[in-house]
Amino acid sequence: MSGRTTARLGDIVSIVGGGTPTRTNPDYYGGEIPWVTPKDMRSYRINKSLVKLTRSGLRNGATRLIPPNSILIVVRSGVLKHTVPVAVNTIPVAINQDMKALLCSERIDPHFLARFVKARSTEILRWVRATTADNFPIDRLRELSVPIPPVVEQQRIAKILDRADLLGAKRREAIFQLDELTRSIFLDMFGDPTENSMGWPIVRLAEILALPLRNGLSPSRNGQVRAKVLTLAAITGDEFKAGELKLGEFMIAPPANQTVDDCDLLICRGNGSIRLVGKGYFPTAKMPDVLFPDTVIAAQVSNSRVGRSFMQSIWNSNAVRRQIESVARTTNGTFKINQQMLEAISFCLPPLPLQKEFAKRVEAVERLKVSNRTHLAELDALFASLQDRAFRGEV
Q: Could you give the C-alpha distances from 138 to 12, 87, 235, in angstroms and in order?
């Protein structure tokens, strides 16, 4: 938008924060007022929240009601390690202290500005400070230079980007539905593992191991050998992510049995979130030049008794999750499990032929997911290009 008017973001919006009512007062929670936190910032339009406040909670929680068509942005959260969540609320909401709301003046269309701020994510992420919680100075955001074409032009650009973004959103929803299909197939074939209504035999993890459990390798500050290391982000999402790597230094050349192998279920040994400790996935391929760290435990199961697809699904089921959370211990804010705890985890074990049939069905679903992910990557690249051109005045 060369030659067009620009303005400091702080001159075209009012920035307000939020707060958290006292958790110990039940009269503050369970009302009708959406209370948005970073956990709710998973879509561009916000019209609901996981937690709701009462009127009393709103009055006593150092927060206020944010009017519709405001821009919500996360300013303090671990998610700021890699992304800046930005959204527009379609209904009045309250926000917590990890959020800010930008209330737009008449000079700026909220959807135009929201798209512009999101497009500057790379710049904003460079401001992030890793203190007690990842955050960035709000004054830096106030100084951001924003192009100000006529409001009609802003609205036109916002609508173009909305339509392009909607295509990606539909593809993401398709991938989500395929994940739900896998869970439905599991329940249809094996029943709810929490209840074991089909009466399958119950085994402990220790009984089906092909090899003893193995902890990953600890890096050393004075190490002379550098190697790629898997990070916990690879196994704490919704699937295994092979690209989540970092470089580490070690005293000696790492042994082969501590490299990433698709025969191993890699399990998170410690995490700040109890919902993530113990989570585990099989790698999608062997990675002989990549290590798994000391925050991971590798479990190689007997392929004569259990299939990978079944094992991965049962391990991430509620039946196993409840057991892990009941035995996890916390030290300095980190929840941890050890090999002995994992060996005692029990679950139902259907016949291997039935597990293999499940694997065939899952493979068909995975092929569809791969196709959808490929199309999504193409749409994301198209959207990024379109967004860049839009804010340079080329659309």
A: 15, 17, 32
CATH classification at residue 296 = 3.90.220.20
Q: State whether 132 and 90 are in the same domain.
A: yes
Are 42 and 117 in the same domain? yes
3-state SS of the chain is CCCCCEEEHHHHEEEEECCCCCCCCHHHEEEEEEEECHHHCCCCEECCCCEEECHHHHHCCCCCCECCCCEEEECECHHHHCCCCEEEECCCEEECCCEEEEEECCCCCHHHHHHHHHHCHHHHHCCCEECCCEECCHHHHHCCEEECCCHHHHHHHHHHHHHHHHHHHHHHHHHHHHHHHHHHHHHHHHCCCCCCCCCCCEEEHHHHECCCCEECECCCCCCCEEEEEECHHHCCCCCCCCCCEEEEEECCCCCHHHEECCCEEEEECEECCCCCCCCEECCCCCEEEEECECCEEEEEECCCCCCHHHHHHHHCCHHHHHHHHHHCEEECCEEECCHHHHHCCEEECCCHHHHHHHHHHHHHHHHHHHHHHHHHHHHHHHHHHHHHHHCCCCC
Residue 221 in this model has a pLDDT that exceeds 70: yes
Number of domains in the chain: 3
Do 58 and 140 share a structural domain?
A: yes
pLDDT tens figures, 274-320 = 999 999 999 999 999 999 999 999 999 999 999 999 999 999 999 99
Q: Are residues 250 and 319 in the same domain?
A: yes
Residue 75 and residue 50 share a domain:
yes
CATH assignment at residue 172 = 1.10.287.1120
Q: Could you tell me how far CA 254 lies from the centroid of its own chain? A: 30
Domain assignment of residue 1, yes or no: no
Say if CB 209 and CB 306 are below 8 A apart. no
- Structural domain that includes position 11: 6-149
